[in-house]
């Protein structure tokens, strides 16, 4: 076992298993804003029969499947030692669809990039959401994936700028 793994097991894992509220989990995963949580909690005072997850879903801020996943399954899943693929958890949480998983897997074969990196680059999930899942489920992957995702995003932005510059140049020359 490496020093990093020992450190994670000793210092991070005990904190991971402490139960957290739905609002805290959704904020940590960057799935909702603090303002959305505050508004939902105010609605909950007016509508005490509705859960926070139901209110967030009714407002369209998260899918009901997502809030149900974090309420019913999350604490059980992070306690398990055996892990499934990242796409499994993202799909169970309602953050990515099966067809999107297939697209990512197909591109993964040719690009040699990690699943999470490709899911971020395709806009299926936010980088912070990827980091959240990696931190809790695959902490040993976090630093490595984080660096790859940031690097790939930088390259993607650079290619976009080059493409825009090329289009602008062509448009300018066709006008003249």
Structure at a glance:
By secondary structure, the chain is mainly alpha-helical. It has helices at residues 3-16, 22-28, 34-46, 52-58, 64-79, 86-92, 98-111, 115-121, 127-137, 142-175.
> CA-to-CA gap between the ends?
66 Å
The overall pLDDT average reads 84
Number of H- or I-type helical stretches? 10
Largest β-sheet summary: none
Order of helices and strands: HHHHHHHHHH
Principal-axes shape call? globular
How many domain units? 2
Enumerate the spans where pLDDT stays under 50 for 5 or more consecutive residues. Answer: none
The strand count comes to 0
In terms of DSSP E residues, the strand content is under 5%
User: Helix share of residues?
Assistant: over 70%
Q: Return Rg in Å.
A: 20 Å
User: What structural class do helix, strand and pairing data support?
Assistant: mainly alpha
């Amino acid at each position: 076992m490496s020093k990093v793994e020992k450190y994670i097991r000793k210092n991070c894992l005990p904190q991971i298993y402490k139960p957290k509220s739905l609002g805290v989990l959704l904020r940590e995963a960057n799935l909702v804003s603090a303002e959305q949580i505050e508004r939902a909690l105010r609605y909950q005072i007016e509508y005490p029969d509705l859960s926070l997850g139901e209110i967030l879903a009714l407002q369209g801020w998260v899918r009901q499947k997502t809030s149900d996943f974090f309420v019913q399954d999350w604490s059980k899943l992070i306690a398990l030692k055996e892990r499934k693929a990242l796409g499994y958890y993202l799909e169970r949480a309602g953050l990515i669809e099966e067809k999107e998983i297939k697209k990512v897997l197909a591109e993964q074969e040719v690009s040699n990039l990690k699943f999470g990196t490709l899911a971020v680059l395709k806009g299926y999930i936010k980088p912070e959401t990827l980091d959240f899942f990696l931190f809790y489920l695959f902490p040993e992957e976090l630093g490595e994936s984080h660096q790859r995702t940031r690097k790939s995003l930088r390259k993607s932005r650079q290619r976009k700028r080059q493409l825009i510059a090329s289009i602008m140049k062509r448009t300018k020359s066709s006008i003249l």
